[in-house]
Write a structure and sequence with these properties.
This protein is mostly beta strands. It has a domain at 246-292. 10% of the residues lie in helices and 39% in strands. The protein has helices at residues 2-16, 127-130, 247-259, 280-286; strands at 24-25, 30-33, 41-46, 52-56, 61-66, 71-75, 77-78, 84-85, 88-93, 99-103, 108-112, 118-123, 140-141, 147-155, 161-171, 179-185, 204-207, 213-217, 222-227, 230-237, 299-306, 312-316, 326-330, 336-341, 346-351, 355-361, 367-373. A hairpin with a 5-residue loop joins strand 13 (140-141) and strand 14.
Length: 383
């Protein structure tokens, strides 16, 4: 029995490090990069002509990015008038070649035409009509044109506190039909006593075009598919080796937070988007050792993306000393099929029809957007 346990443990470790049944693959050639850095790129969607639209929270702008020339330019402008926005986020692909960009301060979605121009807005329904007070940036849209986003549940009795579950909402633009599509784990029981949670054990989710929602469990590292809130498929557990949180991981997290601007509502450091970074001293104060978990969660918050071919790309966590991030490529049923190592100091940003987009960050937190071909093995793209 002891030998059997050792064999199983060894097999799980081999899979987790890209050996045995889950071979490693590499990205294809780099096909472009943008010389002008971003400050806080938050979303990307492709246009039919090969350009992409990128939102930047700090710069409060949608940018049209052209990899053929290596340049970008702002589309639209700040304001509350037609075709204007305050703090843009998204965008997501909607119907046909039309994108929808999030303009939350003005409570609306902006249409972005195939040429990259902003062309009108769709207002969110009033909170009284739906019972949904807040609206978060959309993550995806299904074939019916319904858009999906997630938001925490805040319990108000006996005290105001964030629930251990969160909602995935869906809404058909132009209607008042906002509904809860499914719920997922917002954080684990051992984190519930804290208001702010570094490295939380939070489920990730993806949306298929037919409306199914795939939830990757952070507690089990396992994929489950839901349709209209009902479980329709459960994948196998994905083997991985848990990483113990040490001083190095805590310091790396604080260093990352020290570079972030003081942004209202995103954590204990509050302020207006675009203000100066909070600094190392504030990060040390806001995130003491007592808040950190004993182990890293298996993947990053919001760390799952659906590729065009139906694979799920999962951005794994790793020890602080690890230079190259790991992406697990799961098949549509949740089995680990490939492991991808990203170039050093980059992170996965978006998956396009034929391209993979990465963000490379320097010591000051400035971001370079890079574009690569899918792995030569074909993971991700549709033939």
């Amino acid at each position: 029995m002891l030998c059997m346990r050792l064999l199983l443990s060894s097999a799980a470790t081999l899979v987790a490090f890209g050996q045995g049944p889950a071979p490693e693959v590499a990205l294809g050639a780099r096909t472009g990069a943008i010389a002008e850095p971003f400050s806080d790129a938050r979303g990307l969607a492709e246009l039919p002509d090969g350009r992409v639209v990128v939102s930047d929270r700090i710069e409060t702008a949608f940018s049209l990015v052209d990899f053929r020339t290596g340049t970008r330019k702002v589309t639209g402008r700040n304001g509350s008038g037609p075709n204007e926005y305050q703090v843009p986020l998204g965008p997501v692909r909607w119907k046909g070649d039309t994108l929808l960009g999030f303009d939350g301060f003005n409570r609306r979605m902006l249409r972005i035409n195939p040429d990259g121009a902003i062309a009108g807005a769709i207002p969110f329904p009033p909170a009284g009509a739906t019972g949904v007070r807040g609206v978060s940036p959309p993550r995806a849209a299904d074939s019916q044109g319904r858009i999906y986003w997630d938001a925490p549940i805040v319990d108000r009795v006996p005290v105001v506190k964030r629930s251990m579950t969160a909602n995935v909402f869906r809404w058909l633009p132009g209607t008042d039909s906002v509904e809860v599509a499914v719920r997922f784990a917002d954080h684990a029981a051992f984190e519930h006593e804290f208001v702010y949670r570094p490295l939380p054990q939070t489920d990730a989710w993806v949306l298929a075009r037919d409306g199914r929602i795939g939830i990757v469990s952070a507690a089990e590292y396992r994929l489950r598919w839901y349709r209209d809130g009902k479980l329709v498929e459960t994948g196998p557990p994905v083997p991985y080796t848990p990483v113990k949180v040490t001083a190095a991981e805590r310091d790396a997290y604080r260093a990352m937070k020290a570079l972030e601007p003081a942004a209202g509502g995103s954590g204990p450091a509050r302020g207006r988007a675009g203000t100066a970074s909070i600094g190392a001293a504030a990060a040390e104060q806001f995130w003491p050792d007592s808040l950190f978990p004993e182990q890293l969660p298996p993947f990053e918050v919001g760390g799952a993306m659906l590729a065009p071919n139906g694979d799920i790309w999962v951005m794994r966590t790793a020890p602080a000393k690890t230079a190259a991030r790991q992406v697990d490529i799961l098949d549509a049923h949740g089995s680990l099929k490939r492991i991808l190592r990203l170039p050093a100091r980059t992170k996965l940003f978006a998956l396009g029809a034929t391209s993979v987009y990465l963000i490379a960050s320097d010591d000051d937190g400035l971001q370079t957007l890079e574009r690569y071909s899918y792995p030569s093995a074909g993971e991700g793209r549709v033939p």
